[in-house]
Amino acid sequence: MDRKLPSLSRNVAWSYVNWITGFAAPLILIPLYVRLLGHQLYGEWLVIMSIASYLGLASLGSWQAVGNRIAEAVAGGRRDEVGRLMSTGFIAYSAIIAAILLVVFTAAPMMARRIMPAAGGHVLAAFYVFVALSALAFPMRAYSIMLRAFERVDLEQRINAVSSIFRIAAMATALLAGLKLIAVAIIQGGAMVAAGGAAYGAAVRLDPDARPRVSRWSAPLLASLVKPSIGFFGLTVASTLAFGIDNLVIGYAMSARAVTQYAVPFRLIMIVSGAFATGIAALWPTITKFHATGQTGELRRGFILLMRVAMIFGAVAGLALWFLGPGFIRIWAGAGVFPGRATFGLQIALMFIQMLLTPADAVLMATSRHYGYAALAMAEGVLNLAFSLWWVRYWGLAGVIGGTIAARLLTNGWYMPVAALGAIGMSGSEFTRAIAQPGWGSIARESA
Fold it and tell me: What pTM, to 2 d.p., does this model score?
């Protein structure tokens, strides 16, 4: 256990380096987007990215399934399985994304007319460019997953941090030079392709068998990934509906300007919550290893600790955003971007709920105990879409975020903590006693 602490610390440290670059990116770029593109054009770009985010569904949920299998193989000393897993995954992803691209490019003109009827041809051109580059980067995502499975989150995060720095510099230069959406699409998509290529190089240095080879393709192996992938796919679809649908609903029911007004404050809130989620994400491979090797006590101690941190961090961050956020947003992004106290307060409330659920999400995902979670997440996504479309007509932006909160509380808001406690073999009463105990030292006594 002690030998793993330096690598775990390194993983967390580099995750926060990447978070800092991710924090800096919107601080620098959003004021440039809003002022140099304008509210309307920037809103159209946000809609483009929201539509393109649906390409993530092309993995059919297998990213996490492959990552968990690799982590389990490495923990069990079965390194010979890595090459077959990577080749099978990479070839499957490439075939799926090619088929989906054909559909997307065929349907794009219709989608643009429906969602953004006032948009010009340059918006559609930017969409094509961004989707094409995103598709090139998509299969390379397998290598980022492999780095995580090898507990080399530090390498993955280092690559992402460097990519973010170059993207910030290139984007700022392009915007200040007067370039518009097509240049933005090239830079954003190009950074994804570059990061994917770098992840491939790092993964192959870790294990040369990671290079994709047709001879290593395995249909039975792919079939064995179907069951866990279906659950993860459900979570991917639900996450897209829960958090990727808001901009589309607002663009459809209100305007692209309203998308900017909603998305910019929400981005600030997500950056703040990312300070907590980043550290949790770096722990996923370690959680998988503890689960695979039967270290239940470690899982319990870690879960209680993370829940305490979530409560404290969420409360402090929520209060800071409520009192300081409106003034900061006006200075940072300019006048006319703040969505009003009701919408902003609901966005903060969603952030706090998400923080409390993040430790449970990590346990369920990393241990592949995600089937019930996935089923309810699908219901949550459908409810969110229905509530948002319904309530936006009565309460505008506040109705959209209110729909997201209501859908979450009715479904996984209660289920995820219950399922996570079951995964670590802890009853609700044991958890309550451990959380209520004063002092951090009580965690070890209650969880042992």
Answer: 0.68
